[in-house]
Amino acid sequence: MRREDAADRLFDAFVASELTVAELAEGIDHDPVWTAGVLHGAVSTTRAEAETLTERLEIGSDPLVRALCRAPEKGQRPLEIPSDPMLYRLFEIPAVYGDALKTVIHEKFGDGIMSAIDFECHVERIETEDGADRVRITYEGAFLPYRRW
Length: 149
Known about the structure:
2 domains; two-stranded antiparallel sheet; 434 Repressor (Amino-terminal Domain); alpha+beta
């Protein structure tokens, strides 16, 4: 089974289920953002994780489990700006604040990058008294200084 087909099958089963991403994540002891990455085909699993997910979604099969364990092709989303309002805002943030964030990171850490491999991302709902709840997205990655040679 192709890796992409396995991810599509997993996501379709998730949509048809009554489960939330948080419930699936709890079953494999991972964060909901990471687990949603599995559902969208961006993250590979261990065999045990794939077996748990496919059993919870009632689609277990050995070819599907093996496919979910293979490394996906990362960064396959087209680089065009998406029209979906939520995704557009996630593109807009680095367009507006990217240079500022880079300046502050370099000031605090030096010349380097934040890893997207040694990385975590979390989403929280911040309730407010006025009812206009807020979204908190936390990116946390290892700082990797550029080597000098």
